[in-house]
Specification:
The complex is a heterodimer of chains A (314) and B (249). Chain A is built from nine helices and 16 strands. Chain A is α/β, with parallel strands linked by helices and 314 residues long. In chain A, the strands form three sheets. Chain A has a seven-stranded parallel sheet with strand order 5-9-4-1-2-3-10, with helices on both faces. In chain A, strands 13-12-14-15-16 form a five-stranded parallel sheet. The longest helix of chain A has 16 residues. Helix content of chain B is 27%, strand content 31%. Chain B is globular, with a radius of gyration of 21 Å. With 249 residues, chain B is of the alpha/beta class. Chain B starts with a strand and ends with a helix. Chain B has a single domain, classed as HUPs (Rossmann fold, 3-Layer(aba) Sandwich). Classes of the chains: A alpha/beta (314), B alpha/beta (249). Strand 11 of chain A pairs antiparallel with strand 11 of chain B.
Chain lengths: 314, 249
């Protein structure tokens, strides 16, 4: 049962999401091989080689893989998949973009965003925005699977180093061209890998008021998120959105401020370890999932929280 | 230019679904059904392209039971020109949907196919990408902006860290993200007009596609419930609990 994991990386190290995919792959079977494709990504290949559970790293160095465009990466994966039984990736935007294209070429279904491995053919996955869990069984020899990163641990660093093999398949279908990428966020951690998230909702009233949350977030080393209502109101950019239609997160601590708790938001954060809700409406549904609810005006409570955290830091 | 928009009939996004413990499935009896919200955005985008003078005809296609025709009518009332209904008992898995769509596209060619990024029932997020593979054409998922050039499309995509812009060769398959546009409401005169528009029936058997699923659902369960509802009296109390009880700060 050989398994190929598609890696995402920043040329230096693997993304945490990929290390979670490696954990999921190890639960399916072995050997687990990892494909690191890109330009100047030898360091990332080394990082993959020293990750627990990885037996071999395929390193494909080519300018056409630089931006993870679907068409060239799919071609590479389709070729490689003649040697493997499983293709696994994290359900990041890249994984979700690329893997179904490979699956269709292999004439198999994709099993999307699994949260557990029951056996090599049977998996659990959330449907209806996590309001139901389906157990699904595959009938094909080859399988293409994306994993929900919040459901798997990050693979640890290994004491030994796996073999790295350079591969050189060049097939660019030439259908797409990269123009630009605008990455926002800056210093704070990415939402999907942050240990703590401070999110604001419609109750924040304006984008300016998110500065209150940013100050708290920076004291906690947290990422800043938002509900769909806050994004739709234009307070913050789209990529802040936590929820069924945005990012699904499960940090150690999730602080929801001025968020009422629509079903679609809860679907994106209810697996967080500890949930704090600050809302002035004591009947807001967010309190039903919160471990610690505080019924208060956020414009009093958040500055107070900021001061309390400052005290602790001293 | 001709645009194809596949649409799916799903449980309305406002409905809190219930798992039926006896049938091991989501209870769909007497539940309000609607067009999948991302597909509605796809229909809207096609109409805006047509209103901009860059499209001659918009065809809407849906796979599913007889009632899927209502979903097609909704799209026609918004402004699409013609419908195709592929009659199936249930809604087939994404690979089969992609195969059916590829056959339809084989019969009459389209320059652009716009789909929702995922349906809000099975949350698979696959059909558009699979269709692009079967057609061997370019793919632009999670579009938040679409610009049309002579032989290509410039598409801005929502990716994990921000936005990516790519240029895709024509024909292309695009999938919509939430903020591509805000779909219009169909006006009453347009709802009346839509009743006169054609919906062609297609039998999947005529398309010579083996409709056997490759992945089967064995059971559906409620997720484990989260026990919340705890309250704190003050910020001091909250910080104390986070630090000393939960140990998360």
């Amino acid at each position: 049962m050989s398994i190929l994991v598609l890696a995402e990386h920043n040329n230096e190290i693997l993304k945490e999401a990929t290390k979670k995919a490696i954990t999921a792959a190890s639960k399916i079977g072995d050997p687990v091989h990892v494909l690191v494709a890109g330009t100047d990504c030898a360091n990332a290949a080394n990082d993959a080689a020293s990750t627990e559970g990885v037996e071999k790293v395929l390193h494909a160095e080519n300018s056409q893989y630089k931006n993870m465009l679907s068409e060239p990466i799919s071609e590479l994966l389709i070729d490689l998949m003649s040697e493997y039984d499983y293709l696994v990736s994290a359900a990041t935007t890249n994984g979700k973009n690329i893997l179904p294209r490979v699956a269709a070429k292999l004439d198999v279904s994709q099993i999307s965003e699994i949260i557990s491995v029951i056996n090599g053919k049977t998996f659990q996955r959330p449907i209806y925005a996590g309001n139901a869990i389906a157990t699904v069984e595959s009938s094909t020899d080859k399988n293409v699977i994306t994993i929900r990163t919040t459901a798997f641990e990050t693979a640890k660093e290994s004491k030994s180093t796996a073999e790295i093999s350079s591969i050189g398949i060049e097939k660019n279908p030439g259908l797409s061209e990269f123009i630009e990428e605008k990455v926002s966020g800056g210093e704070r951690p990415e939402l999907t890998s942050a240990g703590t998230i401070v999110s604001g909702g419609r109750g924040m009233q304006s984008g300016d008021n998110f500065k209150l949350l940013e100050s708290v977030a920076d004291k906690l080393g947290a990422a800043v998120g938002a509900s769909r209502a806050a994004v739709d109101a234009g307070f913050v950019p789209n990529e802040y959105q936590v929820g069924q239609t945005g990012k699904v997160v499960a940090p150690e601590l999730y602080i929801a401020v001025g968020i009422s708790g629509a079903i679609q938001h809860l679907a994106g954060m209810k697996d967080s370890k500890v949930i704090v809700a600050i809302n002035k409406d004591d009947e807001a549904p967010i309190f039903e999932v919160a471990d610690y609810g505080l019924v208060a005006d956020l414009f009093d409570a958040v500055p107070d929280l900021d001061k309390e955290l400052e005290k602790i830091q001293k | 230019m001709k645009i194809l928009v596949p649409v799916k009939r799903v449980v309305d996004y406002n409905v809190k679904i219930r798992v039926d413990k006896e049938t091991n499935a989501v209870d769909l009896n007497n539940v309000k059904m609607s067009i999948n919200p991302f597909d509605e955005i796809a229909v809207e985008e096609a109409i805006r392209i047509k209103e901009g003078g860059k499209c001659d005809e918009i065809v809407v296609v849906s796979l599913g039971p007889e009632q899927s025709k209502e979903t097609i009518r909704n799209a026609l009332a918004m402004g699409a020109d013609r419908g195709i209904h592929v009659k199936t008992e249930h809604s087939p898995e994404p690979l089969l949907v992609a195969k059916v769509l590829a056959k339809i596209i084989e019969k009459e060619s389209f320059d652009l196919i716009i789909l929702g990024k995922q349906s809000i029932d099975d949350d698979c997020n696959q059909t558009g990408q699979m269709l692009s593979a079967l057609l061997d054409c370019s793919i632009g998922t999670y579009a938040s902006k679409i610009e049309i050039e002579n032989d290509s499309f410039v598409v801005t995509r929502e990716i994990d860290g921000g936005l990516q812009t790519i240029k895709l060769a024509k024909p292309a398959v695009l999938t919509t993200d939430l903020r591509l546009n805000e779909p219009r409401y169909a006006s009453l005169p347009n709802i009346m007009k839509a009743k006169q528009k054609t919906i062609d029936e297609v039998d999947p058997a005529d398309l010579q596609i083996e409709m056997q699923p490759k992945v089967v659902t064995k059971k559906v369960e409620e997720p484990p419930a989260r026990i919340g509802g705890g309250k704190v009296d003050s910020i001091e109390d909250l910080v104390d609990k986070l630090k000393n009880v939960s140990g998360v700060i």
